Amino acid sequence: MAYKNIISIVGIVLLAFFSFLMLRIMFIYIPIKNDVGFLQLKQGYIDITEWRIAFFTHVFTSILALLAGFSQFNKSILKSYPKLHRGLGYVYIVNILLVTGPASLLMSFYANGGLGSQVGFVLLAVLWIYFTARALYEAVKKRFKAHRIYMIRSFALTLSAITLRCWKVFFANFTDIPPMDRYRLIAWLGWTLNLLIAEWYIYKFVVQRNKNIL
């Protein structure tokens, strides 16, 4: 029990830290500015209305997916406050399916680094939306163990918002890989490793213990 509590505390601390960093990034764009932060690299697209709307939508709403998604794996909330669990779950799902997910998909077609990066980000957005929609479907059908599997996959991709930036810092500080090559690597590493870890966890701790759920 003590070990699990320590893991939970570490997880909360890490979530708080990375959420703070994401908020700092978000505040760079308040009030709306077209020539700061990441937008300095996207001046060729800033006049495309749909891309600009998608970018600011993603910037200002993606943190909701991170925070609401994290709450879905808190057993205390699930057991003691099931209505809160469902409410935050709907915030997570609606945000991804109707707001952040579509915005991310549109942005992915304009990713830096050419076709290699664009394909990586398109796959990330499509799988993110699919896993989230499937998690909702399984919950509606009351197949809650299958729902958990798809939520794990969905949240693993949600965490790419953090891991993308971690890989960016790593490559910038510890390698001599040129910027655009780094970006192409990050477009894939930022989410594929997350998904592989999620699949390992699902197999090890969900499927093997509940072989009749799929």
Compute the average pLDDT: 86
**What is the end-to-end distance?**
29 Å
Work out the helix count: 8
Helix content: over 70%
What gross morphology would you assign?
A: globular
Largest sheet: none
What are the secondary-structure elements, in order, as H or E? HHHHHHHH
Q: Could you name the ranges where pLDDT drops below 50 across 5 or more consecutive residues?
A: none
Q: Could you characterize what this model shows?
A:
- This protein is 78% helix and 0% strand.
- By secondary structure, the chain is mainly alpha-helical.
- The chain has one domain (2-207).
- It is globular.
Descriptors:
214 residues, 78% helix, 0% strand
Could you outline the blueprint of secondary structure elements for this entry?
Blueprint: H1 2-27, H2 49-71, H3 75-80, H4 82-108, H5 115-140, H6 144-158, H7 160-174, H8 179-207
Helix pairs in contact: 1-2, 2-4, 4-5, 5-6, 5-8, 6-8, 7-8
Concise structural overview:
The protein has 214 residues and is mostly helical. It has one domain (2-207). Helix content is 78%, strand content 0%.
